[in-house]
Every structure is written in C-alpha cells, then in structure tokens.
Amino acid sequence: MMMNWESPTTYSLNSVFMISSTDGWAVGYPGTIIHWNGTDWSNVTSPTTEDLWSVFMVGSNDGWAVGNAGIIIRWDGNNWRTFASPTNQPLRSVFMLSTIDGWALGWRGAMFHWDGSSWRNVATPTTQGFSSVFMTNATDGWAVGDYGTIIRWNGSSWNNVPSSTGHGLASVFMTGSADGWAVGEDGIIIHWDGSNWSNVTSPTTDILMSVFMVSPSDGWAVSAFGTIIHWDGTVWRNVTSPTTEFLNSVFMVGSNDGWAVGMGTIIRWTGTAWVSEFPVLLTLPLFVIATLVTLKICRRPKRTKTGTSIVKFFH
C-alpha cells in the first residue's frame, strides 16, 4: 500500500469520493478538482472558481459537485461542466442514488432534488442551514445541520426528527434504516438506533467534520487539528494521525483502504496506519541520497547552495 504520492494542490480540499481504489475525486477551494488514478493525484480542469464543498460520483463517467453561489457541476467521463442551478445560495452537500435521483442542500433549509432532467426545489420544515445529506434509498433519507437540526425523507416529504443535541451537525452517514451516525461541533457524536437519536461518548472535543461507516462495527470520523477517531462496534477511540492540519472529509474504500482530505492535506489509511504523502519508508532513501549529495557539494571550494522554503497558502 505504501507509495510515493503527493497532493497536486495547496488549497483546502473539502470533500473526497472514491469510486474504487484506483479511481477517486476530491474538490475544494477555489473550484479545485483533483483525480486519483491509482498511482497519483492530479489536477483536473475545473469550470468554476467558486469554492466546492461536496462531490459524489455515480460512476466513472458520471458525477456531481456543488459549492458556493449555488454552483453545480457535472462529470461526463471527459470533462466537468457547469449545470443549471435553481439557486445562487451556497450548496454544502450532494448525494446521488442514481443517474436520475439525487439530492443537494445548503443554506436556510434549502433542498433540491434531481429527477434526471433538472434540479428542483423541495420544501423542508426548517430554515436552519444544512451541512450533510445521506439517502439510504429513494424513500428514506436524512439531512443534518445547524443547532442539531435533523430531518428525514419518507418518500414524499421531509419532516423534523427530534435531535439529542443542540450542537451543529456537520456530517451524517447511515448504514441502514435502523443504524446511523452524525457528528459535529465540540466532538459531538450521535447515533440512530431505528427509533431515536442519542448521544454517544466522544474521545475528542474538536469539531468533527466528516463521518464514514464501513459497516455497523467499523467507522471513522475526522476533525480539526488532524484528529482521527475510529468506531470498533463498541467505542470510539482516538487513532494516531500523521497531520495536525484540518481534515474536512473521509471516505473509506474498505476496511483496509481509505482517504481523508483537508487544508492542503491528503492522507491515506493502509489498513494499519494513516500515512501522509511521501511516507517515511519511501522518503528515507531519498533523504539519505539528498544528504550525500549535499555533503559532496559542500566539499567543493567556492560553491554554495541556496535553500528554498515552500509555504502553503490556504484560500
């Protein structure tokens, strides 16, 4: 699993989606789009400079991303293109059930549905801002947001569901109609058991930005300052992180492979550890070679080598 890869951007990445271990996408500021081909992450031409908050791929030849100013873009297998949007307000999350059924949401309770031909507004019972949507099927879905807001889709309408917290919720993930998780401010973690949402002990007070469940007994969440936590079916525990940068999104290909992205950062789960770009096992030989070359140069008379410092700027 160890490989020599690096991020092609220094901008913040807000969302990552993996179709497979050799095909994945991430989006972020300011309209940044990058693609994973199994070996490298590379920049892909973007049709927008608006910040992108969420990406969801239906398949290798069809996918969507949404962001600020109501921007909606679509991947057709060759290019990303802008798509007609029913709003100019920020869109924070997109979830596709199929090529003809999808949802996107954003500020002030705004919710939109894709029917295969256009995005249309759908009424919701709240004016609170949304941050995440997850559909278990066409007649069952969830959305979460500010002040612990939780609503549920029953196939014909969105309805309020009692929440166990007043904290803002940043991400929701369901493993089925009777099991799901949501995370958010101050490390809040809540669990759906099929009847109620209830608080679960969290090992962190950092804001949790994203949660992804591989199964009911295997899940991950990432947060500010690079915090990573894991669910083993019984308890959430802290896991060693290779970064202290903000992590905004996590996506697991399986129990032994996954990715998390954030502020100029991409890290990968190998099945035993989370590793950052240019893992130590790979870079050590490069370091040794660089040291030997430097020593050789320093031995030459009247020669100097000026070092450079790489500074990452976040949009």
Please explain how this structure is put together.
The chain is built from one helix and 28 strands. The protein has 315 residues and is mainly beta. It has one domain: Methylamine Dehydrogenase, Chain H, CATH 2.130.10.
Number of E strands: 28
| Count of individual domains | 1
Q: How does the major sheet shape up? A: 4 strands, antiparallel
Category from helices, strands and their pairing:
mainly beta
What is the CATH architecture descriptor?
7 Propeller
* Beta-strand content: over 45%
Low-confidence segments: 279-315
Which fold name corresponds to the CATH topology?
Methylamine Dehydrogenase, Chain H
Q: CA-to-CA gap between the ends?
A: 31 Å
How many distinct helices?
A: 1
Question: Can you tell me the CATH superfamily?
Answer: YVTN repeat-like/Quinoprotein amine dehydrogenase
Order of helices and strands: EEEEEEEEEEEEEEEEEEEEEEEEEEEEH
The value of Rg in angstroms is 21 Å
Widest sheet: strand order? 1-2-3-4
Helix coverage percent: under 10%
Overall pLDDT metric? 89
What CATH first level would be assigned? Answer: Mainly Beta
Shape: globular
